[in-house]
Design a protein that fits this description.
A ten-stranded mixed β-sheet has the order 1-2-4-3-5-6-7-10-9-8, with helices on both faces. A two-stranded parallel sheet has the order 11-12. It starts with a helix and ends in a 5-residue tail after the last helix. Helix 12 runs antiparallel to helix 13 and helix 13 packs antiparallel against helix 14. With about 425 residues, it is an alpha/beta fold. It contains 15 helices and twelve strands. The radius of gyration is 23 Å and the shape is globular.
């Protein structure tokens, strides 16, 4: 009995620590109270999406201008949050409106967990084919069929318990997701009880890299290609120790067969980004360490191309939008994102002097002129009215060259589905006088 008493005492102490730290981690309240009704109004609930053994709710945001064969992002809220909270703070719905993809927001119910945390640490909810993991997978299948989702462009992200649940889904259903983003989360398989979950959050763990990778490999029979992984964590996180970001990164580096040493490191807006590349140069893992940030989602609230969400509890303005950068990492319609960024800069003048503003205007005008024939051609081939027409990034690049007074890259005859590097390289060499 003494052993049981000690266990209960330790669990009680960990619970009290969690209760004490959560209010402080929420951060300062915004100047005005968040209007959650705005976030809730654009989400609609779907029922009858499957057997739903995890007893979760399914909310979705579907933009009016939906792509043909759109991408799908699953966004998982943290403890004490709702789907509407996460939509408002992280801004995935706003980004979906710009780029034409579907967002699914699983929502935990208090009847499952009084703190509305996803049960990423319970064996019956973290295993393939059961509990909450199966419920979320059923949501993906239902949305894929209902909205004609491109099955090769399904992604998942989440904060804290939602980030840990994203780890569960990536491990249990790796064939379903092209990529995942884990924000202030934990590696898959680090806990199988409430006490172990709290210990993993608050204490330094030292799992071996091989053991971390084995947990993912044992979660399914999948042996094909693995999802790309984006990891984000604040260096001052007192709720989930930042070392968990290292564990997540090592776990997936091992699964991808990569070294635990990053391919290269860079600074973005004063924060550290490390990347891991495959032998062919493709980046499959990235990890951001956000300097001085406590527990939460990094956002950029000042007017800029990256402004998507709103500051509030667990949504911290660090001048860098995780949502924006994750979307770029996943190649979620880069042309649309960049065009919106140019438009935002034009409207706000953020970060641009008069000469730069004039260049933006010239680029926008040139882009519009050059895009008209292609837009008309695309419209002729679009059978569903109201579907979003994607911007061709090659036209955006050509407009930028013209705005700078340089010869534009020669047009490519290839299908306008990506950037064609050779004409850009040739144009740059000519501009430098290194090629005739």
């Amino acid at each position: 009995m003494s052993g049981l008493g000690q266990t209960l005492a330790a669990l009680g102490a960990l619970r009290r620590k969690f209760e004490r730290l959560m209010p402080a981690a929420r951060g300062p309240s915004p100047g005005t109270a968040p209007n959650l009704s705005d976030g809730a109004s654009r989400l609609r609930e779907l029922t009858a999406f499957g057997s739903n053994p995890g007893n979760l709710r399914m909310l979705v945001h579907v933009p009016e201008r939906l792509q043909s064969n759109p991408a799908l992002v699953v966004a998982l809220h943290g403890c004490g949050q709702s789907a509407a909270d996460y939509d408002r703070g992280a801004g995935w719905g706003t980004l979906a409106d710009r780029a034409g993809f579907v967002v699914v927001y699983p929502q935990q119910q208090a009847s499952n967990n009084p703190k509305t945390c996803f049960s990423w640490f319970l064996p019956g909810d973290m295993a393939r084919g059961s509990g909450e993991a199966l419920s979320i997978h059923q949501m993906v299948e239902h949305a894929t069929a209902k909205f004609g989702v491109d099955q090769g462009r399904v992604f998942i992200t989440g904060l804290s318990a939602g980030g840990a649940m994203a780890s569960v889904m990536l491990a249990a259903y790796p064939e379903t997701f092209a990529g995942g983003a884990i924000i202030a989360g934990l590696p898959y398989g680090c806990a199988e009880s409430v006490q172990q979950a709290l210990e993993a959050m608050f204490t330094e763990q030292s799992p071996s890299t091989r053991a971390l990778g084995d947990r993912v490999r044992a979660a399914s029979r999948h042996r094909g290609s693995w999802p790309t992984i984006s990891v984000w964590h604040g260096s001052a996180d007192a709720i989930v120790k930042p070392s968990n970001a290292e564990h997540v990164t090592r776990q997936w580096a091992n699964v991808h067969g990569l070294s635990t040493t990053a391919t290269h490191t860079e600074l973005i807006a004063g924060h550290t980004r490390r990347v891991w590349n495959e032998i062919n140069g493709k980046t499959v893992i990235e990890m951001y360490s956000i300097v001085g940030m406590s527990h939460g989602v990094p956002i950029a609230s000042s007017p800029s191309a990256e402004r998507l969400g709103s500051t509030g509890p667990f949504f911290h303005d660090v001048g860098l939008s995780s949502t924006h950068h994750i979307a770029r990492f996943w190649n979620l319609d880069l042309g649309c994102l960049e065009a919106h960024g140019a438009e935002a800069a034009l409207k706000t003048g953020a970060g641009a002097n008069d000469a730069e503003a004039r260049a933006i205007k010239v680029a926008a005008k040139t882009y519009n002129e050059d895009a008209q024939p292609q837009t008309a051609s695309l419209r002729r081939h679009t059978t569903q009215p109201g579907r979003l027409l994607l911007l061709d990034p090659n036209l955006v690049i050509a407009a930028a060259f013209k705005a700078a007074g340089l010869p534009a890259p020669e047009a490519s005859t290839a299908k306008p589905s990506g950037v064609h590097p050779q004409p850009i390289i040739d144009a740059a060499l000519k501009a430098a006088g290194l090629k005739l």
